[in-house]
Design goal:
Peptide Deformylase; binds ligand K1U; three-stranded antiparallel beta sheet; five-stranded antiparallel beta sheet; 3 helices; binds zinc ion; alpha+beta; hydrolase
């Protein structure tokens, strides 16, 4: 049984700061941070997480795309840990999807984002990597990268009337009646 790792909630200052670069991507502090983030992401049922969400203001994020109730066609991927990620380029196309956030419980918002993104990052061995992400993984990346910039998804919602409570989202968007 792992110790419980709490999630920072909207309103906490750590979520509105620009996170600091990790000086040593393969060092013991960042490796331990990545382990804690993986535990927190899995415990709380996320498809991604960023270090500020466990109250560490460092530029580390994880994306873990998998098919789920909301995105049944999402690709199944092993978790990808990215240290000091940078965006190289965006695709020109946008689409909108309903997002949630572990730090904004109970809310869903319709967020327009670029459909693809090319990124550069360091892995936990310190090696520089590049990746081209499309679809759901690209969306998770942009959501997590925003956390490193101190931005939460409600700021990205284009129309305020597209912010719903979780219950209303389930009723209206998913057509579930509970
Ligand atoms: O950063 C986070 O808070 C994790 C967040 C990632 C995310 C979800 C949806 C779109 C973009 C980014 C979540 O995992 S929210 C948790 C959740 O309820 C969920 C799980 C699977 C799909 C969608 C939402
Ligand atoms: Zn989030």
């Amino acid at each position: 049984m792992h110790e419980h790792i709490g999630i920072a909630l909207r309103g906490e200052k750590v979520l509105s700061l620009r996170a600091e670069a990790a000086e040593d991507p393969s060092g013991p502090l960042i490796r331990q941070l990545a382990k804690d983030m993986l535990i927190a992401m899995k415990t709380h049922g996320g498809v991604g997480i960023a270090a500020p969400q466990i109250r560490v203001s460092k530029r580390v994020l994880i994306i873990h795309s998998k098919p789920n109730e909301r995105y049944p066609d999402a690709p199944e991927m092993e978790p990808v840990i990215m240290v000091n990620p940078e965006i190289i380029s965006y695709s020109e196309c946008f689409d909108s999807m309903w997002e949630g956030c572990l730090s904004v419980p109970g809310l869903r918002g319709l967020v327009p984002r670029q459909t693809g993104v090319s990124v550069r990052y360091h892995d936990l061995t310190g090696k520089e990597q590049e990746a081209c992400l499309q679809g759901f993984p690209a969306r998770i990346f942009q959501h997590e990268f925003d956390h490193l910039e101190g931005i939460l998804f409600p700021l990205r919602v284009a129309d305020c009337s597209d912010i719903y409570s979780e219950n209303e989202y389930r009723r209206r968007i998913q057509g579930l009646h509970d």
